[in-house]
């Protein structure tokens, strides 16, 4: 990894390239996804089968789109005890964290003659998209848990999952076992943009939902962006990111490993170290090279680090904090002597990992907070997927006649300023009633 002194013209140029790598969509992708969504909306299951046969499972049929109870039962026999132990622990801890997020309805009667409040209710149905991962050979189990468990805690009556099938027409057993554990009601063997279309519009087999969540490739991301408004979505997520703030107490081997844990995701992923120790910067750069030698996805990681990786040596922790707040990273690690002293000053981050033994992967799989996080600087204004994404809030308003008369003249004043005579009249007719 290249080391920069920050601030400097070279460092500024590098940071501009990293921060400026927003989520862009090629015109050809936009056109292709638009066609797919229109096709699914018009033709339903027949469109899903056509795309599935072309891209995923050549022998897919309408009858096989929904995972059967027999398939669910068979899946449990195909996973080992070690997986079940890890799955159960992860599910328990994810559930425990998200239960703390449940909002409550409330009523306020402090103003005489009024009742004001808010009702909180779950949406009627939610859809969770789960990538298949290399044709089903690397099932992304954590995506099942992170999408479905918050929906269940919110009280959503119907939670469905879509995931691309393997070429055999099956779904990886680990995904099905995780879906059962997370409380998913139905699993459908369909992926990519056509799966998002099915969830948004509904087909003969797949019910339409109110909210769609979950990560995916560029077609999935673009499809979610296009159906937003027809349904709610979690976010438009880009490539993975990590920023590590480290001082002289950090272990360079740990730091290098954590940077590579994100760089291996994607050539567009970003991995940045910000430190006030020039010695640590050199040690981490060397450790990265050493660890790349044995990394299975070394080619991807090298491309990522070359384009969007950097080590920034700053004057002090104040500069490191300012830079982190400017970047607003998805994952922010604090490998410093006293992380609780630094954390309150960090305003913009998807998730903050505190201390030398809290690497980013603990958040991906086990800690409890959601790993669906804002990327590309959107942590400046958005948050992790949560129970709130599956709930909606309805305002309650009630006025007595006396309370109405107290506010009436001021309401009419504001309505008339806005040129809305009908609004003012709705107040006036009540004032005029004897």
TrEMBL record:
- Report the cofactors: Zn(2+)
Q: Does the keyword RNA-binding apply?
A: no
Q: Which GO terms describe its biological process?
A: L-histidine biosynthetic process
One GO cellular component assignment for this chain's record is: cytosol
- Does the keyword Metal-binding belong to this entry? yes
Catalytically driven reaction(s): L-histidinol + 2 NAD(+) + H2O = L-histidine + 2 NADH + 3 H(+)
- Cofactor binding remark: Binds 1 zinc ion per subunit.
Which residues are Zn(2+)-binding?
262, 265, 364, 423
One Pfam family this sequence matches: Histidinol_dh
Alphabetic keyword roster: Amino-acid biosynthesis, Histidine biosynthesis, Metal-binding, NAD, Oxidoreductase, Zinc
Q: Tell me the route in metabolism or biology where this protein functions.
A: Amino-acid biosynthesis; L-histidine biosynthesis; L-histidine from 5-phospho-alpha-D-ribose 1-diphosphate: step 9/9
Q: What does this protein do?
A: Catalyzes the sequential NAD-dependent oxidations of L-histidinol to L-histidinaldehyde and then to L-histidine.
The entry's family comment says: Belongs to the histidinol dehydrogenase family.
Q: What is this protein called?
A: Histidinol dehydrogenase
Q: Gene symbol?
A: hisD_2
């Amino acid at each position: 990894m290249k080391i920069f002194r920050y601030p400097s013209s070279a460092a500024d140029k590098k940071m501009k390239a990293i921060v400026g790598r927003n989520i862009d969509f090629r015109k050809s992708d936009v056109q292709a996804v638009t066609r797919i969504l229109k096709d699914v909306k018009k033709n339903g299951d027949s469109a899903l089968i056509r795309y599935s046969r072309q891209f995923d499972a050549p022998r897919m049929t309408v009858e096989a789109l929904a995972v059967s109870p027999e398939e669910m039962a068979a899946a449990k026999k195909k996973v080992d005890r070690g997986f079940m132990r890890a799955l159960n622990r992860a599910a328990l801890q994810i559930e425990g964290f998200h239960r703390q997020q449940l909002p409550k309805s409330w009523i306020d009667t402090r103003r005489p003659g009024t009742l004001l409040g808010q009702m909180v209710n779950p949406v009627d149905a939610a859809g969770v998209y789960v990538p298949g991962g290399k044709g089903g050979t690397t099932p992304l189990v954590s995506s099942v848990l992170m999408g479905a468990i918050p929906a269940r805690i919110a009280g959503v009556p119907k939670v469905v999952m879509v995931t691309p099938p393997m070429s055999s027409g099956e779904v990886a057993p680990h995904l099905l076992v995780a879906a059962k554990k997370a409380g998913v009601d139905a699993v459908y063997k369909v992926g990519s943009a056509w799966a998002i279309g099915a969830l948004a519009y509904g087909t003969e087999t797949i019910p339409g939902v109110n909210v769609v969540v979950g990560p995916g490739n560029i077609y999935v991301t673009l499809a979610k962006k296009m159906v937003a408004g027809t349904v709610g979505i979690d976010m438009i997520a880009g490539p993975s990111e990590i920023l590590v703030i480290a001082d002289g107490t950090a272990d360079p081997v740990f730091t290098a490993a954590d940077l590579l844990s994100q760089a291996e995701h994607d050539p567009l992923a970003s991995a940045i170290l910000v430190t006030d120790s020039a010695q640590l910067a050199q040690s981490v750069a060397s450790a990265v090279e050493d660890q790349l030698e044995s990394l299975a996805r070394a080619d991807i990681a090298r491309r990522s680090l070359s384009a969007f990786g950097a080590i920034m040596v700053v004057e002090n922790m104040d500069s490191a904090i300012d830079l982190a707040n400017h970047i607003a990273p998805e994952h922010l690690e604090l490998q410093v002597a006293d992380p609780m002293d630094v954390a309150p000053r960090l305003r913009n981050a998807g998730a903050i990992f505190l201390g030398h033994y809290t690497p980013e992967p603990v958040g991906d799989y086990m800690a409890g907070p959601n790993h669906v996080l804002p990327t590309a600087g959107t942590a400046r204004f958005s948050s992790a997927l949560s129970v709130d994404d599956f709930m909606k809030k309805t305002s309650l308003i009630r006025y007595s006649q006396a309370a109405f008369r107290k506010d009436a003249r001021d309401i009419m004043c504001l309505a008339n300023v806005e040129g809305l005579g009908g609004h003012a009249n709705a107040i006036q007719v009540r004032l005029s009633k004897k």
